[in-house]
Amino acid sequence: MSPYTPGFFAIDNIDTALNPKLAARLIKELTIIAKENNKQVLLTTHNPGVLDGLDLKDDEQRLFSIYRDIDGETSAHRIMPLQPVKGREPVRLSEAFVRGYIGALPQNF
Question: For residues 81 and 101, what is the distance between their CA atoms, to the nearest angstrom?
Answer without folding.
Answer: 12
